[in-house]
Write the C-alpha cells for this entry.
Amino acid sequence: MHNTIAHWLMVIGGLNWGLVGIGMFLGMNLNVVNLILGGVPYAESVVYIVVGIAAVVGIFGGCRCKSCEVSPMGGAM
C-alpha cells in the first residue's frame, strides 16, 4: 500500500515540477502546491518533504514482502 502512495506522490510531484518549469518560461506561477497551500505557514514545506520521502521510498523499493514484489510482466505477483 505504501508503495502505491509513494508512486502517486511522485507522479503528483513530477507534474508539479513540470508545471513550475513551464511557468518559468511563460512568466507565470504554475506551482500548484504553492497556489493551493501558499497562504498556510509551513504547509508547502511539509508537502515537499512528504513527496521527497516518497521519492526515497521509490528509489530504494520500499517494501520487500512477497505481495509487493513486481513480476517481470509489470504486475504484482
Q: What stands out?
A: The mean pLDDT is 82. Residues 2-68 form one domain.
